[in-house]
Design goal:
Four Helix Bundle (Hemerythrin (Met), subunit A); four-stranded antiparallel β-sheet; binds zinc ion; four-stranded parallel β-sheet; elongated; alpha/beta; Rossmann fold; about 475 residues
Length: about 475
Amino acid sequence: MSLKVYNSLTREKETFVPLHEGRVHMYVCGPTVYMDAHLGHGKTYVNFDTIVRYLRYLGYRVLYVQNITDVGHMLDSGEDRMLKGAAREQRQPMEVAETYTRNYFRDMDQLNVLRPDISPRASGHIPEMIELVKRLIARGVAYEVNGSVYFDVHAWEDYGKLSGRRIEELQAGARVEVLEEKRHPEDFALWKRAEPEHIMRWPSPWGEGFPGWHLECSVMSTKYLGQPFDIHGGGVENKFPHHESEIAQAEAAHGTAFARYWLHNGMLMIRGEEMHKSLGNFITLQQAFERWDPLTIRFFILLSHYRGPLDVTEEALDAAGKGLARLTAAARAVRRRLSDAPAGEAAAAVTELVETTRARFEESMNDDFNTAGAIAALFDATREVNALLADEAALTRGSLEALDTLYRRLAGDVLGVLPENLEEGLEGLAAGLVELLIDLRAELRRNRQYAQADAIRNRLAAMGVQLMDGPEGTTWSLS
Ligand SMILES: [Zn+2]
């Protein structure tokens, strides 16, 4: 069974065959580091992290590059994002870039997003960018005017092949702010002349200036991954003009294909609306983490297909938290039972459960990374695991090891939703101790020693551990 991915370039689901056997070279457009990452960033980078994790699970050696944009990314208003951040905080642009780069990685670590193998900074690749611009001028697809260099989209007939937009549409859609100096309104800047007040500037053959955002990604992807490379990912909102322009620049400069598979993830919505500062529904990841565990947010993201939109509601996040707790509890119980399990091979029924679950999980993931289907397979398995766990005698060490590996590999390594210290470490120990006290309290209550039982509950409450008695036993949470 082979991996199929939906390729935005061909608009078809294709069998994935990497350029070099056993290796995958992958690039995803990174954040522009002028403010804290928001929930939409969470979706994008959790989606692509899970894709990288699954490719590694399949045995590929993945080289994953994700850039840091610290120059040249303009807002629709024409303002430079980095300079806007610097003005807001009264600091140098590079201080702002450093702060939000660190914050970005902090947030991603919390979401259990593995760090890319290379995180190139745009500002560290200016000489390579200038080289690419020179090449495009030499090839006749770019021209210089007044210290700025533009890509001539009419000189490159493939322009529009990713987004399916035609030049006539581009003209209609071109921004109102049409610079007189451009040959056509839809031409885009490769290099921009720095106005006197523009702090971020570098010398170039065309005078002092700075690179265009699209140019940065063409340069940083191919520098580390070669051209062509296997997978280019990014948010669907960047398909045009960003990705379209990345392709045009790289292919016009080098005369070979740029990226072979284009993967676009869908937008994140808040209660059916796009997230936007002006709508008052803008949520940074740190704000979201105050209310929900980062792994709950990760799990919630993976309950939907990466290409689809994801609608965030509080109810849906709460429900995701409960689902993940069920999965984690079963994985934890399996791990805990391992230590004193009777020796013995895995039971045939357990082996079959593990194999069926693994097959269903892989079948879903091989279908364009259908994480929702993969999670459904784990939920079905968890129902059976819970039944097995309820029967004290049924589980040998071999059976428990097989189940533990299943959770570790699929929920842990691929989906990244199991806490690292499921059992080990102080947190796991503390969780184990709370469970022990819950068992003792239940024993005391069975023996009608209510005063001692209540003392346990009250002492735990004083430490911030709430016990909840329900029809299926006692659960606990940190208050
Ligand atoms: Zn990009």
